[in-house]
Structures are given as C-alpha cells and as structure tokens.
Specification:
Number of helices: 8
Strand order of the largest sheet: 6-5-7-4-8-9
Order of helices and strands: EEEHEHEHEHEHEHEHEHE
Distance between the termini: 16 Å
Helix content: 25-40%
Largest sheet: 6 strands, parallel
Radius of gyration: 20 Å
Number of strands: 11
Structural class: alpha/beta
Strand content: 15-25%
Length: 238
C-alpha cells in the first residue's frame, strides 16, 4: 500500500488466514511490491471493488504530471499538486523531474517525507515557510495535502494550477466537486483486476471483504465460486 505497510499471516492447526490491510498490485517505486501468500482464508480490502476502476500504467500518469508542470512553468504559473501526506506525496515526489524546476512542500508533507528519506532516495525539496516569497515559487511545483485547497495557505502561493492525484479522480463528479484543474487517477489501492488476481494467486477458498464495496464485491465472488462474506471493521467510516 505505502512504505511500511504489511500483511499478517496467521496459522493454526494447519489452517492459514491472511489479512492484507490495504494493498496495491502496481509497483510504485518506493514500497515493497505486493506478495501473494497462499492461504485458506483471505481477508481483503475492496476500496475500489467495482469493474469501473481500472488503473493505467503509473509511468503514463507520472509523465502526464511532469508535462502538466512543464506547461505551467512556461506560463509562469505555479503547479499545486495535492495528495495524501503518507504514501501518495512520496510516490509523486519520487517520479517528479527536478530538471523542470524546484519542488516546494507543505509542512505536513515535508515532515512525512523527511522520515522516509532515511530509506528512500527522493529529489530535493524546499519547505514553504512564512519567509518564503511567492515570487520565488512562481513556475515551480508545490506538494501539499488536499486540505489546502481554497485555504488561506494556498492563496498565498499566487496564481496556481491545481492538480490532485487519487483513485477517486476516476469519478468525474469527484473532479467537479473539488473544482481542480487537473485530475490524475493514481491510487495506492488495487483496482478491480488487481483485487481479483490477488485473490486467485492465494489459492484461497474463503474470502472476507472489508472497507469499500464489500457487499457487491462479495456477491460477485460468490457467483464466481468463492465462499465470500463481508466483515465490518473499526475503520469503515474513515
């Protein structure tokens, strides 16, 4: 899912259960690749457990982001790129082209990235402070969490083009509601095919779905021959 995340394998009297937590099957360049583990019961998230969710190759998305930044720079417009502070921002940073310009960061994203720099080689970033002049940021790129959108902090950046990286950007309605200039469909969760291929790879007989389109996904799995059911968790409403 993101750097530091893992699965849990439990074995009792020869029966094996695997709890995945959140996971993705696409390699992001910063996390340990997802490893299918053979088991009898597979507890899986299904955040994007609908056929409509089909991710493009990450390399194409990262290329689009760098092209968007370069075009903005040509117009002397600052690129405000938003994503979750843990995992998404670091994934974006890893694949940004520092030859285009400077990369600035919000304090929330910078602190998280600073912890991971010990383990991962990232491009250089510069923290935005009260002393930072918006003129020096002009044409460069700013990494920040989604909460800064339309905030006083963002307004101090001057003229910006806003971009948001998330799997939810696959929905046009989500793009319109956030009123962003560019939506980049980049998720740290498995898409429909990723979920199904992961389940098949475990060789499991039983599937427990959590967090997402649990009922619909479990129903589909039962139609395909798995013994599938849903399970509520304490993080369902997050």
């Amino acid at each position: 899912h993101v750097p530091g995340s893992s699965q849990i394998r439990v074995e009792y009297k020869g029966e094996v259960w695997v709890f995945t937590g959140d996971y993705k099957t696409q390699f992001d360049g910063i996390s340990t690749p997802f490893e299918p583990v053979k088991c009898h019961t597979f507890v899986t998230e299904c955040t994007f457990g609908l056929p409509v969710f089909k991710w493009e190759k990450p390399s194409k998305i990262h290329k689009d982001i760098n092209l968007w930044w370069a075009q903005n720079q040509g117009n002397k417009t600052t690129s405000l790129l938003m994503g979750y502070s843990l995992g998404k921002v670091q994934r974006l940073l890893k694949h940004l082209d520092p030859e285009i310009g400077k990369i600035y960061t919000h304090s929330a994203t910078e602190k998280m990235t600073e912890v991971l720099r010990e383990f991962i080689d990232f491009p250089k970033t510069e923290l935005i402070t009260r002393e930072t002049n918006k003129k020096e940021i002009e044409g460069n790129l700013v990494l920040a969490p989604p909460t800064v959108l339309d905030s006083a902090w963002a307004k101090k950046l001057g003229e910006v083009s806003t971009g948001y990286a998330s799997g939810w950007m696959a929905f046009r309605g989500a793009r319109r509601r956030r009123a962003i200039d560019r939506a980049f469909v980049l998720s740290d969760h498995a898409d429909w095919k990723g979920l199904l291929s992961s389940i098949k790879a475990t060789g499991c007989e039983n599937v427990i779905t959590t967090h997402g389109y649990t009922d619909l996904f479990a129903k589909y799995l039962r139609e395909q021959g798995w013994n599938a059911r849903t399970e509520k968790t304490q993080y369902e409403t997050e």
